[in-house]
Write a structure and sequence with these properties.
Keywords: Carbohydrate metabolism, Hydrolase. This is Glucosamine-6-phosphate deaminase. Residues 11-225 form the Glucosamine/galactosamine-6-phosphate isomerase domain. Helix 1 (11-28) crosses helix 2 (43-54) and helix 2 packs parallel to helix 3 (82-91). The chain has 241 residues and is an alpha/beta fold. It starts with a strand and ends with a helix. The protein has one domain (4-68, 77-193, 208-240): Rossmann fold. It has a seven-stranded parallel β-sheet, with helices on both faces. It has a three-stranded antiparallel β-sheet with strand order 4-8-7, covered by helices on one side. Helix content is 32%, strand content 17%. The relative contact order is 0.19. It has helices at residues 11-28, 43-54, 82-91, 111-124, 161-166, 186-189, 205-212, 237-240, and strands at 4-8, 33-36, 64-67, 69-71, 101-102, 130-133, 155-158, 180-183, 194-199, 231-236. Helix 7 links the parallel strand 9 and strand 10.
């Protein structure tokens, strides 16, 4: 399997490439189901998409969206939540109906039911049209940590210490519990029509180099990208130098 592989000068250029790829698919499949990662990685990409929608270069009114992952037990209104990032950089900036967006309720009493709801939403909408993913320093995709099955649907996960540590930067309150997450599964992501992994900065170098070795291993979830029918990897020079 060949990977469409882009190495750009910096984060801004990475964001431009990812946004162009996504906008092309949105124009071709305006009523598709789209999954965008939260957090810092896709901020530049999402801002470009938002600007395109604001300038009426793209119509998002028919598209559906689903949240990739969320911190369990943290109010989604918290500024550090994955949903807050998505809203701040895209969904609050463009005129979409909230019915177009499926999110996890990380405060729900029955988190397994939240997983089932996400699975059902994906199935009812014919699967994921496109997924935009970041990659963790430990190689995770979404909150699919090392050791995760490549066949999983949405599930609850105990987060690795590295993920918990990196997560500190998102929250003003360091005492926030970051031990559990809820996430779409790699099995669902691999069924995406288009699967894009975006990475920038030296901290992501180890995970991306392990991917580029070509060995598929559950201990580095980003290597599952090799199993996708038409995968895309977009990185900056810091990741590969």
């Amino acid at each position: 399997m060949k990977v469409k592989y882009y190495v750009e000068a910096n984060y801004q250029e990475v964001s431009k490439i990812c946004a162009k790829l996504i906008l092309d698919v949105l124009k071709e499949k305006p009523n598709g189901l789209y999954c965008f990662a939260g957090g810092d990685t896709p901020v530049g990409t999402l801002n470009i998409i938002a600007e395109a929608a604001i300038n009426k270069e793209i119509d998002l009114s028919q598209a559906k969206f689903i949240e990739l992952d969320e911190w369990v037990g943290i109010d989604p209104k918290n500024e550090g939540s994955c949903l807050s990032y998505l809203k701040r950089n895209l969904f609050n900036r463009v005129p979409i109906d909230l019915k177009q967006l499926h999110t996890f309720d990380p405060l729900a009493d029955d988190l397994n039911e939240e997983c089932k709801k996400a699975d059902k939403f994906i199935e009812e909408n014919g699967g994921l049209t496109l997924s935009l993913l970041g990659v963790g320093v430990n190689g995770h995709l979404g909150f699919n940590e090392p050791g995760s099955s490549f066949e999983d649907k949405a599930h609850i996960v105990n987060l690795d210490e590295s993920t918990q540590s990196v997560g500190k930067k998102y929250f003003s309150d360091e005492k926030v519990d970051r031990t559990k997450g809820i996430t779409l599964g790699i099995g669902q992501l691999l069924q995406s029509g288009t699967m894009i992994v975006q990475a920038s900065g030296a901290k992501k170098k180890s995970a991306i180099q392990q991917f580029l070795c070509g060995t598929i291993t559950k201990e580095c979830p980003v290597t599952s990208l090799w199993l996708h029918k038409d995968p895309v990897l977009v990185v900056d020079k810091e990741v590969v130098n």
